Amino acid sequence: MPKELILATNNAGKVAEISGLLAGQGYRVSSQSEYGIASIPETGLTFVENALLKARHVCAHCDAAALGDDSGLVVPALRGEPGLYSARYAGPDAGDADNNAKLLDAMRDCSGEQRKAMFICVLTLLKHELDPEPVIAIGRWDGTIATQPSGDHGFGYDPLFIPDGFQQTAAELEPRQKREISHRGQALQALFDQLS
Amino acid sequence: MPKELILATNNAGKVAEISGLLAGQGYRVSSQSEYGIASIPETGLTFVENALLKARHVCAHCDAAALGDDSGLVVPALRGEPGLYSARYAGPDAGDADNNAKLLDAMRDCSGEQRKAMFICVLTLLKHELDPEPVIAIGRWDGTIATQPSGDHGFGYDPLFIPDGFQQTAAELEPRQKREISHRGQALQALFDQLS
């Protein structure tokens, strides 16, 4: 009988991607929305703490294992910003264009190594609400912040992020290619490896 | 100039061990006691959250990177117990013998695979108080819980823990051998690899 794993997300795309990957590991993947569980405030101070908060919230409602995720862009020259606030960097109602504009402005005096950045994705799997030892899978995608946006694919900071080893931005990569090499792809592979 | 790293512990033995390992990586290691920082309550629900709480408490007092750690014994058949409460399993003033006795009693009906256990050690390095992306290094030492204690070395649950691949308990291993293969040794090696 497959083990049940509930994703702490209402994003159907994430559910489809993770379902496919973990079906071969004997997991039946569903999402919190199928159980009527609402999202909770992300009050953690690190990606891993936010991912754990989300997973634990699901475990508290269902007697099943839960997978939480959190991700964002980290710029060391900005002491980690936009970091946990990547999706709302320019304000609670900000869109991608607003956030990109704010990042370009914050980095207007940065050059060379100071333009280094990384996308981070952390996945945490809690077997039950009080599981002391979650599986933690981290994906990291290194790159550089361009001085102007380019590309129509992707979302978030993709039009500004030039992955190491590439000349174009993440928004100029084919979606399939991005999915394989991105921070999320690497985190999913690390999760898969630990569950195998 | 070496980077400063403050350990969120008052244990001189841990400081000596970690100093030696990280000196070659350009870190000057000190302990929170040198800064008059007291320990804080471990209110996290996972090892990684406790390690982060300890490190963040140090960062809040000093403008330096801090390393927190947390560790314990996890018995899947007991839904993760003693887990975060390994050092105080039999009560707030319990000693090692009390905790070992309580564990043997809790597992009196466990046999075969149900006696599997693992020691976990999690190290977290925060570059500053609001660093969203700490270095996380996890060590895991798998074994089986014996039906009676043996051995005089080590501490905690070592007299009951038979590491996979051994016939004797962790308390019967030479301290140097244990240090290399234990959960703590593996976590330190994983930290070293990530900082290299």
Q: What is the element layout, followed by pairings?
A:
The structure is a homodimer of 196-residue chains.
Chain A: E1 3-7, H1 12-23, E2 27-31, H2 47-61, E3 65-74, H3 96-106, E4 116-126, E5 135-145, E6 161-163, H4 175-181, H5 183-195
Parallel strand pairs in A: 1-2, 1-3
Antiparallel strand pairs in A: 3-4, 4-5, 5-6
Helix pairs in contact in A: 4-5
Q: Classify the secondary structure makeup of chain A into a structural class.
A: alpha/beta
Mean pLDDT of chain A: 93
Straight-line distance between termini of chain A: 17 Å
Gross morphology of chain A is: globular
In angstroms, what is the radius of gyration of chain A?
A: 17 Å
What is the beta-strand fraction of chain A? 15-25%
The arrangement of helices and strands of chain A along the chain is EHEHEHEEEHH
Report the CATH topology name of chain A: Maf protein
- Helix fraction of chain A by DSSP (H/I, runs of at least 4): 25-40%
What oligomerization state is this entry in? homodimer
